[in-house]
What we know:
Layout: H1 9-23, H2 30-37, H3 41-48, H4 51-76, H5 81-96, H6 106-111, H7 117-143, H8 153-172, H9 177-188
Amino acid sequence: MPDVKHFEPDQVLATAERLFWRQGVASTGIQDIITATGLSRSSLYNSFGGKDALYVDVLRRYLDRRSRPMFASLAADARGVPAIKDFFHRLISVRCTGEFAGWGCLVSNAHLEQPSSAAKAVLDAHQTSLKEALQSALEAADTCRQLQSGLDLTATAEHFALLAYAINLRSRAGAPPEHLRTATDAALTPLLA
């Protein structure tokens, strides 16, 4: 007779997401996962393949549920520069206030963890999605003639993606939101027409 699952896999992933996000993968042991999720050791391995595979599933879930909706909103916003400013100000607000204040970004944190090749693939997908969204917003800004002419939009999108990662890491270290806002405004202002 097959084993019957007595847990909701998505709830396990949500719990594990919070655990890995707050503590990091290296600092999270199997017993931490078992205690937080209520899974048995055999259920963890049978259903998720162990800690490393669970971590990759959690990263994918975070990308799909937290990052991509924010990126899609930015990419679809035709306002240009105001959309880019709103994106960064929203990012700073999410990182510095509310339930997850001081946790940084699970994906940014993962870059510091010497990720496995499977985890690295998710991190690369995140980077690509972020950069494409920023490039779309920059293209809208260029179309609206809000930027200096001749600006390399691809390089600028890469620059802003790196700025987003820096915000995530600095917010985890307790940087005040007003400092982060000042830095993002300073990065954008010289590019304006």
